[in-house]
């Protein structure tokens, strides 16, 4: 298998950076009732969730996620289970973690986590959604549609674009995911899965340029 590149090509940098910046909600962190770690291929989500817990940002964590084609090889027992194990290694106490191991998409993450907390009699007025950096906007729009009464903040491990690509180990994968998430902002709102979000002209142009460059693996 050829070695995957972690170097962002200069001719793509401006467009990739534009999408990267758009998906960051730039929310200011403040304490919340629960931190919800959204399952993915990125173990950094669990790392940052644990860091926020230790910083006193929330007293309870829910890790949500089953498997997807992009994660089953890395997390064969399920995203939430592997996230929990990683958080335990980072010193989060077992009684501060709940897992929701069935979610297969962001909508499931929200609805199944909400149902889990309600089944435990845990009242939630505010939540921090921790995700991959480029999933923030999609997580926000989905939560506002499916759990509108909760005060939601989005957060991700604070890495610059190049450092994030290095942490994932595959620049093409990151670009494909960025392009796919950009498409989903519009499509999921049209399908009633999320609230509408304005997409600036420069974001649309960057998206179109990257699609034309062949980054279509994660398009619907």
From TrEMBL:
Name of the protein in question: DUF218 domain-containing protein
Span of domain DUF218: 48-153
Q: Which Pfam families match?
A: DUF218 (PF02698)
UniProt superkingdom: Bacteria
* Entries under PANTHER family matching the protein: DUF218 DOMAIN-CONTAINING PROTEIN, INNER MEMBRANE PROTEIN, PROBABLE PERMEASE
Q: GO CC annotation: what is one?
A: plasma membrane
Q: Which organism is it from?
A: Amycolatopsis lurida NRRL 2430
């Amino acid at each position: 298998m050829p070695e995957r590149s972690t170097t962002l090509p200069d001719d793509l940098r401006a467009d990739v950076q534009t999408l990267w910046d758009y998906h960051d909600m730039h929310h200011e962190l403040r304490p919340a009732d629960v931190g919800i770690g959204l399952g993915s291929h990125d173990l950094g989500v669990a790392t940052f969730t644990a860091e926020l817990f230790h910083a006193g940002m929330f007293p309870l964590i829910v890790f949500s996620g089953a498997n997807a084609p992009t994660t089953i090889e890395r997390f064969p027992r399920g995203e939430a289970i592997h996230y929990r194990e990683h958080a335990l290694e980072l010193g989060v106490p077992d009684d501060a973690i709940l897992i929701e191991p069935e979610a297969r998409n962001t909508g499931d993450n929200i609805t199944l986590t909400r149902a889990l907390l309600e089944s435990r009699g845990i009242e939630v007025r505010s939540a921090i959604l921790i995700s991959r950096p480029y999933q923030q906007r999609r997580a926000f729009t989905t939560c506002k549609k499916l759990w509108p009464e909760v005060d939601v903040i989005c957060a991700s491990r604070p890495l610059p674009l190049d450092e994030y690509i290095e942490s994932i180990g595959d620049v093409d994968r990151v670009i494909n995911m960025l392009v796919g998430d950009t498409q989903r902002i519009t499509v999921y709102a049209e399908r009633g899965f999320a609230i509408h979000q304005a997409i600036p002209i420069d974001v649309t142009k960057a998206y179109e340029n990257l699609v034309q460059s062949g980054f279509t693996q994660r398009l619907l």
